[in-house]
Amino acid sequence: MDTDESAGFSLDALRDRLAYQPLLLGGIALIAGTALTLASNATRAPIAAAEVHDTQMTLAQVLPPGSADNDLLADVLELPGPAAGSTRRIHIARKAGVVTGAVFNVAERGYSGEIRLLMAVDPAGKVLGVRVLKHTETPGLGDKIEIARNPWITSFDGKSLGEPAPEKWAVKKDGGIYDSFAGATITPRAVVKAVKGGLDYFATHRNEILGVQP
């Protein structure tokens, strides 16, 4: 009799414990989720502010000092992108209300992945500046496209579709005017192609970007 009662008690206790554990785990999960949400909300504003600051700094790098007095982040034009169904955001630089440049992203496939660039073009179609936004090229070789590692990226400054001639828009190994890096020709070749493509795009959409009636 004592054995039966003891067994019954043990089963009841076990059932109570089994019912309690999911509630405990659910409570812990709720607390953890709430904490993560609060942490995310607390850091969202600083992260957004940092992103805005980084974008402003990058935009400033491709434009000559003092060439714009407007809010480049707010003065944006969206046009059809190079790929079907895509769009391209154009940041318009103005000085005293006059357009002084257009800033936009371009990209090409490099050796290890996509190379994303930010370039600025003046109203006449000349490159004002180019900077690398993102890449996964080989450290010590392909990363020389970064301004912090090599001034090579500045070789595009002042260039246009007419200077150099179209066939010279290539690395020297391919008959062009641009230097390549030892052991990393694919990377500069992709950058040259991206910048040339950006100039072609600007020429195609020049009137829309500058607000000129055809």
From TrEMBL:
Membrane topology of the entry: Single-pass membrane protein
Cofactor: FMN
Protein species of origin: Aromatoleum toluolicum
Protein localization: Cell inner membrane
Family: Belongs to the RnfG family.
PANTHER family from the UniProt entry: ION-TRANSLOCATING OXIDOREDUCTASE COMPLEX SUBUNIT G
Known EC number: 7.-.-.-
Domain of life (superkingdom): Bacteria
InterPro entries per record: FMN-bd (IPR007329), Ion_transpt_RnfG/RsxG (IPR010209)
Name of the top EC class for this enzyme: translocase
Residues carrying FMN phosphoryl threonine: T185
Primary localisation category: membrane
Function description: Part of a membrane-bound complex that couples electron transfer with translocation of ions across the membrane.
Keywords from the named record: Cell inner membrane, Cell membrane, Electron transport, Flavoprotein, FMN, Membrane, Phosphoprotein, Translocase, Transmembrane, Transmembrane helix, Transport
Protein name, UniProt field: Ion-translocating oxidoreductase complex subunit G
Pfam families from the UniProt entry: FMN_bind (PF04205)
Coiled-coil intervals, chain numbering: none
Residue spans crossing the bilayer: 20-39
Record text on subunit structure and interactions: The complex is composed of six subunits: RnfA, RnfB, RnfC, RnfD, RnfE and RnfG.
Record-annotated FMN-binding domain positions: 110-202
